């Protein structure tokens, strides 16, 4: 069975994507910072019959990243790496004039540095896979200027650029930066707690990710809403 590493997998988009892959028979290595939520997710997904390894930890910890790749190696390798774990930089979001620099550093460490570190750790196994794939979960804030989203958007723009260069450097590996579009997640609620407007559930965009995995287009940046349009 193919093996995927998914960070930030205890809830939201990470859990929804992991669930879809588990239903397809994938073996999974899942990461999140909250052990209770992560183990509950792993137990639920194990019901689909695949092997599911839950490793709680912080992706900024090099030892934790090594552990994720080692767990995947024990399952047979790494066919898919999904960098979904994210940090906002401030909760709720604030204008750049008031953005704590430590918060910006945290966003960059989680969203950019840790994502690259995990790719570096997994790359030998991704190269060995017949369908090695990296998915960097991006944001429209990486490409558009939204008030208060400067720090988070800057980190996602940096992630997009890393993904673009990695795609050029590793022609044997598919590398996709994917903007999932608007979703109702805990991350968004923490970013803009006063916004009560209903938003799509994370599971509604998962078919876009599955379409990428099924059709395997060239490395590049993709928008989930565009992928979900009628073909």
Structure report:
By secondary structure, the protein is of the alpha/beta class. It is 46% helix and 15% strand. It has eight helices and seven strands; from the N terminus they run E-H-E-H-E-H-E-H-E-H-E-H-H-E-H. The chain has helices at residues 12-23, 35-46, 62-75, 101-128, 150-169, 186-191, 206-215, 224-227; strands at 3-6, 27-32, 52-56, 80-83, 133-137, 174-179, 220-223. Strand 5 (133-137), helix 5 (150-169) and strand 6 form a beta-alpha-beta unit. The protein is globular and about 50 Å long. The chain starts with a strand and ends with a helix.
Which descriptors apply to this entry?
alpha/beta, 7-stranded parallel sheet
Calculate the mean pLDDT score and round it: 97
Strand content: 5-15%
Beta-strand segment tally: 7
Shape: globular
Given as residue ranges, the uncertain stretches (5+ residues, pLDDT < 50) are: none
Query: How many alpha or pi helices?
Result: 8
Query: Which value, in Å, is the CA radius of gyration?
Result: 16 Å
For the sheet with most strands, the description reads: 7 strands, parallel
What's the arrangement of strands in the largest beta sheet? Answer: 3-2-1-4-5-6-7
Query: SSE string, helix = H, strand = E?
Result: EHEHEHEHEHEHHEH
Helix percent band: 40-55%
Cα separation of the termini: 29 Å
Classification by helices and strands: alpha/beta
């Amino acid at each position: 069975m193919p093996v995927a590493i998914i960070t930030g997998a205890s809830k939201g988009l990470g859990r929804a994507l992991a669930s879809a892959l588990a239903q397809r028979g994938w073996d999974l290595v899942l990461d999140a910072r909250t052990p209770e939520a992560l183990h509950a997710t792993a137990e639920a997904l194990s019901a689909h019959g695949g092997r599911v390894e839950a490793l709680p930890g912080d992706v900024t910890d090099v030892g934790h990243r090594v552990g994720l790749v080692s767990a995947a190696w024990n399952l047979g390798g790494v066919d898919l790496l999904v960098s979904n774990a994210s940090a906002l930089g401030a909760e709720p979001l604030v204008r750049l004039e008031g953005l704590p620099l430590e918060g910006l550093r945290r966003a960059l460490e989680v969203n950019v540095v840790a994502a690259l570190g995990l790719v570096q750790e997994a790359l030998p196994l991704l190269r060995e896979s017949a369908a090695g794939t990296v998915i960097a979960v991006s944001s429209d804030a990486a490409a558009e200027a939204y008030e208060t989203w400067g720090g988070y958007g800057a980190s996602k723009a940096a992630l997009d650029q890393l993904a673009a260069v990695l795609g050029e450097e590793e022609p044997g590996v598919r590398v996709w930066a994917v903007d999932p579009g608007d979703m109702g997640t805990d991350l968004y609620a923490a970013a803009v707690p006063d916004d009560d407007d209903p938003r799509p559930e994370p599971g509604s965009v998962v078919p876009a990710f599955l379409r990428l995995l099924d059709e395997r287009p060239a490395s590049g940046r993709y928008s989930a809403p565009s992928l979900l349009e009628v073909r």
